[in-house]
Structures are given as structure tokens and as C-alpha cells.
Write a structure and sequence with these properties.
Layout (H helix, E strand, L loop, with lengths): L17 H5 L13 H26 L7 E3 L4 H7 L12 E6 L2 H18 L5 E7 L2 E7 L8 E6 L1
Length: about 160
């Protein structure tokens, strides 16, 4: 039996690695290994995340704070285990869930991503602020084409 692996240290952009965009706490037979197409999609997504990181730090922190990814690429097996949609953008490397320290930071991230879309005239597929009790994150997705610019505030 052949074991397939990825170089988790491979840089997708200056601050984001393949390892952090594929990390999962679920051990699966498929190893959560993305295809070459999914890796290209992750690179495009990470380009947006780089702009978010830069702009957030410029506007609000005046220092270098990282953007922390809770979930990026998900294989079918991982996606099923987390209860993800069968049409999830995570399955093709087009989405990331960005950790936020409260609702205020989630709102600031969302505003910056909207500003980037408007200024660059590039569209995103999904921008969803999700809040569960004291936990908050931003689900952000960008596809190679067919972006819907779907925005949603999901508080439960």
C-alpha cells in the first residue's frame, strides 16, 4: 500500500502554508490530501487572506498579528465528519473559516473583505459571520468563477 502525503510547510503565500490550510483534528483514511486543483484554489483564497491580514493590522493593531484559520480544505471524509454541506466550498479548497476573538473582530474582518472586493472589483462567493455563544468566526469563500457574493449573519 502506498502512502500519500503533502509538504505541510509548502508556502501558499507569504504567511499561509499548506499545513495550516489542511489541518484537521479528524484522523481519516484519505489523510485530508487536496488535489492540485484544490491547492491552486487555496492559493487564490490565501491571496485574499493576505490582504485581510495586511489591512487589519494596518487599521486596527499597528503590529503583525496573524489570521488564524480554523478550517480550510476538507476532504469528503473530513467534511462528512464535521457535518459540512455536500456542496461545501471547503471540498475544493475555496473556503476558510477564520477564527475571531468576538463579534467585533468578525465584523471588522467582514468589512475589510467587502472593501477589498469593492476596491479590486473582484468578487467572492460567500462571506458569512457565524456566532455560536461566545465563539465567532468568518466563513469566507472565493471560487475561480461563478462567485455569488453571498453575505449572511448567522447567530445562534
Amino acid at each position: 500500500m502506498c502512502t500519500v502525503s503533502i509538504n505541510k510547510k509548502e508556502k501558499l503565500t507569504e504567511h499561509f502554508t499548506l499545513g495550516e490550510m489542511t489541518k484537521t483534528s479528524y484522523k481519516t483514511k484519505d489523510g485530508n490530501i487536496p488535489s492540485r486543483v484544490a491547492i491552486e484554489n487555496l492559493k487564490r483564497l490565501c491571496g485574499w487572506l493576505e490582504m485581510l491580514r495586511s489591512e487589519y493590522n494596518k487599521r486596527y493593531t499597528l503590529k503583525e498579528e496573524p489570521i488564524i484559520i480554523n478550517s480550510g480544505y476538507r476532504s469528503w471524509e473530513v467534511n462528512k465528519r464535521v457535518g459540512g454541506s455536500s456542496t461545501s466550498n471547503h471540498l475544493v479548497g475555496c473556503a476558510a473559516d477564520i477564527k475571531c476573538y468576538g463579534k467585533e473582530q468578525a465584523l471588522r474582518y467582514a468589512v475589510i473583505l467587502l472593501d477589498i472586493a469593492d476596491e479590486s472589483r473582484e468578487d467572492f462567493d460567500e462571506l458569512i459571520i457565524e456566532v455560536r455563544g461566545s465563539r465567532a468566526w468568518v466563513h469566507f469563500a472565493v471560487r475561480p468563477k461563478g462567485n455569488r457574493r453571498k453575505t449572511l449573519l448567522d447567530i445562534k
